[in-house]
């Protein structure tokens, strides 16, 4: 039953300024209030006031609250007021018989003051310190780590429950901690269930946990959590940890304070991040949600809440992400926040240091994917170019280090390839052209980076069937503005050479049709100034029907043949899908045929075996003017002219000018 000396308006006085009640301490205060109200259940000392009202308590907490005075100093087991030596006894709910201590009237004020502080956080902390654990090295490096020092508690008040740590199998225990059983049942949900179960060892005074879920350090922390709510208090002995967090949070120049910790060599041990993961795993086993959340919160604090770009965070953040990713704890939010910090374009230079290479492949894959998603959005191709510049600059700085190969294979080259692939697919966009014009500006120091970008775009891995149209159009546009730049000239030559080798093969390929967007990307005033003097290559009749992206036939305006200065009307009479070049616009085809030995009719033909047919002039003209059957020409066999497949496209040219142009393609 509740003690009568605590009425509704007479709660215990919290004289310690640290006893500020907020949500962080509500858990332990609730447990202490329950212990006080239900002290008759497992209390080991009972007092009788002069009016014979009995007050139950737990002697270890009362001992600390009374200034390390034993309960016997406040009362006597004999009823001296009745002139008798008979001792009164009482039983708690566990059936333990206890001697009642009678409080004389003169001791009542001091007794009530001690009882007012018995079930407080101050007494709970004092009990932990009196046990000797407060001086133990929690890092596990000292010779007495995990072993309590000399206790100041009387023998009858020492911890009465022991938790052993064992490795799986029939191996002996190699570590143990002792706690008070009455506190363990209240503070640790796992043991509350354990003591109330019907297991054979539930009534004993020992328990065993295993190294699959615990380490000596996390077991020590779990024991300390029984007595001290705030995890940060238990980590005070860890060198530099509290200062590293406090200085950062209280300093407006957070990156500078983070840098000073590295310069002054006051950075805490990096292994403390691993210990927070161990605490989280142990807390989850013990079902201590508050302890688990505290460990995850402090792990985030160790990374300065993933808002700092100082040198300390360049060391800690990658390690935090790595240990969380390798563990089975619920740290997805930490992973998301840490990856987001590292993936910002502005944070690559300050945070991408050597510790990042120590991360597991899974973390680096997440980082590459996040960087790519940040910089590879439609309409933001210039951001991708800036990313390539930043990565390329970082790569030049790492070439001289002994980890250059790791930088390339693990992070930089894969990210550059991702970025180049994205840029290549939008190489004909205004964003890419404008970005490259800036890169190749005469006064821009990033021109070598631009050359490297163009070199990767023109590589066989990037320049292929899916991207060749965009790359060709983009490089031709760039050459108009920066054609005197050697890197641009070389890229243009490489692109043209590729089409000279591949155009015949591409006529066998099906069309790759890109859906036409109804809206255009917005251009800035600077972009407008760059392109305002450009005239369209060909003026189209606005009344001509457009070529829809889903069409399988050529529906555009009359095609201009590059063979002569005259125009020939061209149409495709086919029941099959068009070939690769049929999806190109007239303007793009005209640009291509101006630099390779082929006509538009040759390009849009289904295959070299069925070339463009000029009905007036025989034999059929073939690509490269070759009449060899093996190379797509005319075979004069027994059946007459053979043109390969019977279902291929047939292109009819209606001649306007009577004079053909026999110019070599």
UniProtKB/TrEMBL annotation:
Chain positions covered by the region annotation Disordered: 515-571, 606-665
Superkingdom, natural source: Eukaryota
InterPro entries recorded: SKP1/BTB/POZ_sf (IPR011333)
Composition bias type Basic and acidic residues, residue spans: 656-665
Protein name: BTB domain-containing protein
Protein species of origin: Morchella conica CCBAS932
């Amino acid at each position: 039953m509740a003690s009568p000396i605590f009425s509704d308006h007479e709660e215990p006085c919290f004289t310690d300024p640290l006893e500020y009640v907020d949500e962080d301490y509500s858990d332990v205060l609730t447990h202490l209030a329950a212990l006080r109200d239900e002290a008759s259940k497992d209390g080991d000392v009972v007092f009788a006031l002069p009016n014979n009202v009995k007050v139950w308590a737990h002697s270890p907490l009362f001992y600390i609250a009374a200034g390390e005075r034993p309960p016997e100093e406040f009362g006597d087991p004999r009823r001296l007021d009745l002139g008798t030596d008979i001792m009164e006894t009482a039983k708690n709910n566990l059936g333990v018989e206890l001697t009642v201590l009678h409080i004389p009237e003169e001791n009542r004020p001091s007794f009530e003051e001690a009882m007012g502080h018995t079930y407080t956080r101050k007494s709970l902390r004092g009990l932990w310190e009196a046990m000797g654990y407060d001086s133990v090295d929690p890092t596990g490096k000292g010779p007495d780590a995990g072993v309590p020092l000399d206790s100041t508690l009387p023998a009858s008040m020492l911890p009465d429950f022991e938790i052993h740590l064992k490795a799986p199998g029939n191996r002996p225990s190699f570590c143990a901690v002792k706690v008070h059983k009455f506190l363990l049942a209240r503070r640790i949900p796992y043991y509350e269930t354990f003591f109330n179960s019907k297991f054979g060892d539930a009534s004993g005074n020992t328990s065993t946990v295993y190294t699959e879920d615990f380490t000596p350090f996390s077991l020590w922390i779990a024991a300390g959590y029984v007595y001290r709510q705030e995890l940060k208090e238990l980590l005070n002995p860890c060198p530099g940890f509290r200062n590293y967090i406090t200085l950062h949070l209280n300093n407006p120049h957070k990156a500078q304070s983070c840098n000073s910790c590295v310069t002054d060599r006051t950075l805490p041990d990096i292994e403390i991040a691993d210990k927070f993961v161990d605490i989280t795993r142990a807390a989850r086993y013990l079902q201590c949600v508050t302890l688990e959340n505290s460990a995850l919160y402090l792990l985030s604090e160790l990374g300065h809440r993933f808002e700092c770009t100082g040198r300390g965070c360049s060391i800690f953040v990658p390690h935090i992400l790595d240990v969380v990713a390798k563990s089975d704890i619920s740290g997805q939010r930490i992973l998301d926040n840490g990856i987001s910090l590292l993936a910002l374009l502005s944070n690559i230079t300050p945070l991408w240091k050597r510790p990042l290479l120590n991360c597991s492949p899974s973390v680096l894959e997440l980082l590459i994917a996040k960087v790519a998603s940040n910089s590879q959005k439609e309409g933001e191709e210039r951001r991708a170019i800036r990313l390539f510049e930043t990565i390329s600059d970082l790569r030049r700085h790492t070439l001289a280090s002994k980890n250059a190969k790791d930088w390339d294979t693990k992070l930089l080259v894969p990210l550059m390839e991702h970025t180049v692939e994205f840029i290549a697919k939008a190489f004909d966009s205004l964003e890419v052209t404008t970005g490259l014009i800036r890169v190749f500006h005469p006064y821009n120091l990033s021109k070598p980076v631009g050359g490297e970008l163009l070199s990767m775009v023109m590589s066989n891995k990037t320049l292929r069937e899916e991207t060749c149209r965009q790359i060709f159009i983009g490089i031709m546009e760039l050459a108009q503005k920066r054609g005197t730049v050697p890197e641009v000239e070389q890229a243009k030559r490489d692109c043209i050479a590729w089409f000279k080798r591949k155009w015949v093969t591409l006529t066998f390929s099906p069309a790759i049709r890109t859906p036409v967007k109804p809206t255009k990307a917005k251009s800035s005033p600077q972009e407008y100034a760059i392109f305002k003097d450009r005239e369209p290559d060909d003026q189209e009749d606005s009344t001509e029907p457009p070529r829809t992206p889903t069409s399988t036939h050529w529906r555009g305006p009359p095609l201009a043949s590059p063979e002569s200065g005259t125009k020939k009307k061209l149409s495709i009479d086919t029941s099959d899908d068009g070939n690769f070049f049929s999806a190109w616009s007239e303007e793009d085809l005209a640009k291509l045929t101006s630099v390779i030995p082929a006509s538009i009719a040759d390009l849009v033909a289904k295959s070299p075996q069925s070339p463009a047919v000029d009905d007036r002039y025989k034999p059929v003209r073939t690509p490269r003017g070759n009449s060899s059957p093996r190379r797509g020409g005319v075979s004069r066999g027994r059946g007459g002219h053979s043109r390969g497949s019977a279902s291929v496209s047939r292109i009819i040219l209606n001649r306007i000018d009577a004079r053909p142009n026999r110019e070599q393609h």
